[in-house]
Amino acid sequence: MAIFMGRDHWRVRSPQNEPFPASISGAARPIDGDSLFVGGNEVRLHGIDAPEGRQTCSRNEQIWNCGEEAKRELARAIGGEIVACDVRERDQYGRLLARCTAGGRDINAAMVRAGMAVAFGGYDDEEADARSSRRGVWSGEFEAPQQWRARHNFQDAR
Questions:
Q1: Strand pairing report for 41-45 and 96-102
Q2: Using an 8 Å Cβ cutoff, are 58 and 141 in contact?
Q3: Taking Cα atoms as reference points, which of 35, 55, 38 lies closest to residue 149?
Q4: Which of 17, 42, 56, 121 qualifies as a FRET site for 92, CA 20 to 30 Å off?
Q5: What pTM was estimated for this model as a whole?
Q6: 3-class state of residue 119 by DSSP
């Protein structure tokens, strides 16, 4: 009993309050269009929101898997380069929220510029360019990822 009483073992820590590194780098692997593993760290790209893996969109009255395409676009943006991330904070799930680069290219901006993510607190110019050029999800009809998650009771609310 003394073991539990002496060292704050009774306190439950929130993952978002856990310490985090200022930066990380390493080989990267996409999880979906706005999340990736960098080394052993799960990273959520800050300031963007991409379609979820199971999310579909429509273009020319045809359904396409925009969620899977967003994941493929993130892989292209990484391009086999080492990824470096400036970490801002942890989200409620304990993931690192970060701005990441690969080969000196801003991956977050690249996803929005390609039209495979929407601006979510950043990257408004890139979104305006993708929208006016009708790239990615802007080439047809789509539901905002945040609304899609809410409608499908998806746990990863931004």
A1: parallel
A2: yes
A3: 55
A4: 56
A5: 0.85
A6: strand
